[in-house]
Amino acid sequence: MVTSLAAVLAFRYVDPPISSFMVQARVGALFEREPFTLRHDWRAIGAISPHAAVAVVASEDQRFPLHSGFDGKEIRRAMQEAEGGGRSRGASTISQQVAKNLFLWPGRSWVRKGLEAWFTLLMEWLWPKQRILEVYLNTAEFGRGVYGVQSAARVYFRKDAAQLSASEAALLAAVLPSPRRYRVDKPGPYVQQRRNQIVRQMHALGGSAWLRNVLPPAR
Length: 219
Prior knowledge:
about 220 residues; mainly alpha; Penicillin binding protein transpeptidase fold; three-stranded mixed β-sheet; 3 strands; globular
């Protein structure tokens, strides 16, 4: 408990050099004897296009500025759909995804979910929202071995994250539900449709002005 508190507090001020998911991907490739290149290049949120921040919020967690780590409305909706026999859907917030990506491992066990909740609460308590979003933008996976929007921008668009357009940012966000299944470089009809939907949602949120109007500074 003390260790987790210290780690979360430290990462409030120190940029994480690597995440748990990055380590697991590298170790997994070693065991499978597959070639693997880890691409991860940290960028402060001020050096990332505002379109990227708006895109991931529009795609993953539109009530991100309002909740305290857990979106009760989305959780209830997911439970209702599951009870009705619908397709299982995720209800994880951006805060929960940061907790999982940075500190934990994939899976659905109660132990892992409990730890995810604990780390989420710690981050919401110790970090401002913009810091949570900054860490998410730098640790999210956008393809095999591609972590963070700076690396994704370089790999897929040959530009820095600061130069991403709204459409490019939305395309990156479109693969986040399953970055190993969907591809930025070869987007199929589903990814293209999802990108267009995210662009519309970005406009509905207020576009690039949303970041400075809604979220307080990270530091």
